[in-house]
Specification:
Elements (H helix, E strand, L loop, with lengths): L13 E7 L5 E9 L4 E10 L12 H14 L13 H9 L7 E5 L6 H7 L4 E6 L2 H11 L7 E4 L11 E7 L8 H14 E12 L6 E2 L2 E2 L5 H8 L3 E12 L5 E11 L6
Parallel strand pairs: 4-5, 4-7, 5-6, 7-8
Antiparallel strand pairs: 1-2, 2-3, 8-12, 9-10, 11-12
The protein binds S-adenosylmethionine.
S-adenosylmethionine binds next to helix 1.
């Protein structure tokens, strides 16, 4: 099965089923495929039309989850603006961190990204993918088939997640920049500090200062390497910066900045 294309108009036997929900503008929706004998449900849940936002763009956890579940049930995974067939800059930064195949790494807000496919191809055996949207994780699981069985799929909001494992590397492309509320950013950093081992690396990609002001209908905070460093604080040393002019499937260009930090062995959080 080709990468993505699992939502919206599902190809290759993938089907969407929808029924009227219990009111409130929502509906029950399921993603499933049939192998001729059985119907296999990939994901089922209540989807709302759009998350409400506060004036500063911040959302409650429920609103955030409804928003992202809706995004992945309404759109094909290879048509969303952030889609990349080959996440080259992420992979370069991950490999530059000297992480070894037996090390544990996590893609936070990985959605239906193909990064996990490439990490498995590169020989990494302990890969976790966390996302608030179950349908996104279901799409990646389905795309990977048996190969996805070794992946630790975590459906959670990173701002309320309590990590039970320690990771050598944390990757986030286009998630942190949605946290417009300082309290959410503090909660994200609490999760990061619990999850990332000392001397581990964190790769964060956000829209750059001259990047878009919104994504997926939501406002974002744009960063420079300096402002992102200030967010993470003195226990993280900036080791590498890359820029990317991401070409969206619709043909627009979005400027990203990627920063790789190493968590210091000594000091602070
Ligand atoms: C712009 S997409 C990027 C997806 C992926 N990282 C990529 O580069 O293709 C943002 C992703 O973050 C997820 N997300 C947004 N807020 C989140 C949160 N608070 N916790 C976990 N995931 C979140 C969304 O469901 C979505 O998959």
């Amino acid at each position: 099965m080709s990468s993505g294309s699992m939502m919206g108009a599902p190809p290759s036997g993938m089907k969407k089923a929808a029924s009227a929900g219990p009111g409130g503008g929502g509906w029950l929706e399921a993603l499933y495929f049939s192998d001729g004998n059985r119907r296999h449900t990939l994901w089922a849940g209540l989807v709302k039309r759009a998350g409400r936002q506060m004036e500063d763009g911040s959302m409650s956890q429920v609103e955030r989850q409804e928003h992202w579940q809706g995004v992945y049930t309404r759109n094909a995974t290879d048509e969303v603006s952030w889609f990349q067939m080959h996440p080259i800059v992420s992979l370069d930064l991950i490999h530059a961190s000297d992480i070894q195949p037996e090390d544990r790494l996590i893609d936070v807000g990985g959605g239906a990204s193909t990064l996990v496919d490439h990490l498995l191809d590169s020989g990494f055996r302990m890969v976790s993918v966390l996302d608030i949207a179950g349908p996104a994780l279901a799409a990646s699981r389905s795309r990977l088939g048996d190969r996805g069985a070794t992946v630790d799929w975590i459906e959670a909001d990173v701002t309320t997640w309590h990590p039970s494992l320690q990771y050598s590397l944390w990757h986030d492309r286009a998630v942190f920049h949605f946290l417009t509320d300082p309290a959410d950013r503090a909660a994200y950093k609490t999760a990061l500090n619990h999850a990332l081992q000392k001397d581990g690396c964190v790769v964060i990609a956000t829209f750059a200062l001259d990047g878009p002001e919104r994504c997926s209908g939501l406002p974002v905070v744009r960063y420079s390497p300096e402002s992102l460093s200030a967010e993470l604080g003195p226990s993280y040393r900036l080791e590498q910066v890359e820029h990317e002019d991401h070409r969206t499937p619709a043909g627009r260009t979005q400027r990203f900045v990627y920063c790789r930090f190493r968590r210091l062995l000594l000091g602070g959080e």
